[in-house]
UniProtKB/TrEMBL annotation:
Protein name: DoxX family protein
Main location: membrane
Transmembrane segments: 141-162, 174-193
Subcellular location: Cell membrane
Native source organism of the sequence: Streptomyces composti
PANTHER family cross-referenced by the UniProt entry: INNER MEMBRANE PROTEIN YPHA-RELATED, OXIDOREDUCTASE CATD-RELATED
Membrane topology: Multi-pass membrane protein
InterPro entries to which the protein is assigned, alphabetical: DoxX, DoxX-like_oxidoreductase
Length: 212
């Protein structure tokens, strides 16, 4: 008969007492679906989402893959309400490039996923007026990437990751709410400032129209 310990994984389920590892290890790493399947799936998700995020980030930072670099991206940021443009472009590029790279490596997964999700929330705010679907200019694409990054942050990177190789020193339980809390606060401030800026611009345009 299997003995159960008082330790539990992130989902709240108790794990077998015979489960190897330190008390600080997050997961028992034993799964009913068979050894390695979950880890391989997480690796594919990390490489896919992380690679796409990195590509978009390097477009902003360096102009790679047909991007416009800091200068061009900064000008675009100004037009959609993120000001000052260059710092906004730099912050978005770093969050996407850094968050994507760390997700692909499976390193500091809570912070990486939260940073990438925050960047995608900022992008989604720009596209929200166009509805959901990407073909109409909506936020579908940004939301998909953001939710994938957030899901990976919550689930963890799995065994095929640097986090696991390093004993989860950068993937403690307390780091998850801390990372999402800081990111949510920063993202809310940035998006809120943008909305206020756009509202003032619209009010100014209306006032000019009435004066004419």
């Amino acid at each position: 008969m299997r003995r159960w310990s008082r330790r539990s994984d992130r989902s709240g389920r108790r794990v077998p007492a015979a489960c190897p590892g330190r008390a600080t290890v997050i997961f028992c790493e034993r799964h009913d679906s068979g050894p390695g399947r979950r880890d391989a799936g997480l690796l594919l998700l990390r490489l896919g989402a992380g690679g796409v995020l990195m590509a978009h980030g390097t477009q902003k930072l360096f102009g790679w893959f047909g991007g416009h670099g800091i200068e061009g991206t900064g000008q675009f940021m100004e037009t959609v309400g993120y000001s000052p443009g260059k710092p906004s472009a730099t912050a978005a590029g770093l969050a996407e490039t850094g968050g994507g790279a760390l997700l692909a490596l499976g390193l500091a997964t809570p912070a990486a996923g939260a940073a990438a999700a925050g960047a995608m929330a900022g992008a989604a705010a720009v596209h929200t007026p166009n509805g959901f679907f990407a073909q109409e200019g909506g936020y579908e694409y940004a939301a998909t990437l953001g939710l994938t990054a957030a899901g990976l942050a919550i689930t963890g990177a799995g065994r095929l990751s640097l986090d696991h190789a390093l004993g989860h020193v950068l993937d403690r339980n307390w780091m998850l709410p801390a990372a999402f809390g800081v990111t949510a606060a920063a993202t809310a401030l940035v998006i809120g400032a943008r909305a206020k800026r756009l509202r003032k611009a619209r009010e100014g345009e209306q006032q000019t129209l009435f004066e004419e």
